[in-house]
Write a structure and sequence with these properties.
- The protein has helices at residues 4-10, 34-37, 43-57, 210-216, and strands at 29-33, 63-69, 72-77, 90-93, 96-100, 114-118, 126-132, 144-150, 156-165, 170-180, 183-194, 200-203, 219-226, 230-232, 235-249.
- By secondary structure, the chain is mainly β.
- The strands form three sheets. Strands 4, 5, 6, 7, 9, 12, 14 and 15 form an eight-stranded antiparallel sheet that branches.
């Protein structure tokens, strides 16, 4: 899945530069002021803010997420002398890391397929996954949501997700992938069937292999692809996600 900004670039509708603004230019930092982008809180502004974050979080933009301070999301060029820190979720236990969706700081981990953060979601902070109402009646709404994260190599990791399905049970297939020497290295982590009604925790059947983390340097993109999507006003929804937890196990 690609963001609308990616598609604008493909169509030649995005401003062009002489050379690469990150690799060839003086660009060092980029700040996304979410309060400016979503100044009026309209649906279009919320959508645009999500597209901006998804675009910057794509590894191909050569920018890396640094931190979130209030409404400001800070990115740094990968060519900056200070380099890039690993996109490591919060360590919540020895060998355990938790990505808390809907809380400040999740902005650097989300790709396409997510709605805005909801810190006051009933039962826990969350983000809905899904798509905005298609502009054309026959357009296929997006059922895949992307996450980015780095994990310390050297071990395998189980993945547990706390989620709730919208309206009807949804089966979610999860894949972890990244490029290695121009080739996609992907591993299926299996599928879970998430129920509506109340939050529950689901552990994927296949751990992230230690060999894959060694090959990618610990950097991975996760595809969470639902088997269906349900219209809900101006949005189409699959599931709400509270958190994703990674726990180290013996390879």
């Amino acid at each position: 899945a690609r963001s609308e900004i990616n598609r604008m670039v493909d169509r030649g509708e995005w401003p062009q530069y002489d050379g690469d603004p990150v690799l060839d230019g003086p660009l060092g930092y980029v700040v996304v002021h979410q309060d400016w982008v979503m100044a009026h809180g309209t649906l279009d502004e919320r959508r645009w803010n999500g597209e901006i974050l998804a675009f910057f979080n794509d590894y191909n933009t050569r920018l890396c997420y640094i931190t979130t301070e209030g409404d400001a999301v800070l990115y740094r060029a990968m060519t900056h002398p200070a380099g890039c820190p690993p996109l490591l979720p919060t360590q919540t236990a020895p060998g355990g890391y938790t990505l808390d969706l809907g809380q400040p700081g999740d902005e650097g981990f989300v790709g396409t397929g997510w709605f805005w953060a909801e810190p006051d979601f009933p039962g826990g902070s969350a983000r809905w996954a899904g798509d905005y109402a298609p502009a054309a009646p026959k357009s296929e709404p997006r059922r895949e949501a992307l996450l980015y994260a780095s994990l310390p190599p050297g071990q395998s990791y189980t993945v547990t997700i706390r989620a709730i399905a919208y309206y009807t049970p949804r089966t979610v297939n999860v894949t972890a992938a990244n490029l290695v020497d121009g080739e996609v290295v992907a591993e299926s982590l299996g599928s879970i069937t998430v129920q509506p009604g109340d939050w529950a925790e689901y552990t994927l059947p296949n751990p992230i292999p230690a060999e894959q983390l060694a090959a990618t340097g610990g950097d991975l993109a996760f595809s969470l692809a639902a088997d269906g999507i349900t219209p809900a006003g101006d949005r189409w929804l699959t599931l709400a996600y509270d958190w994703v937890q990674f726990r180290a196990v013996d390879p």
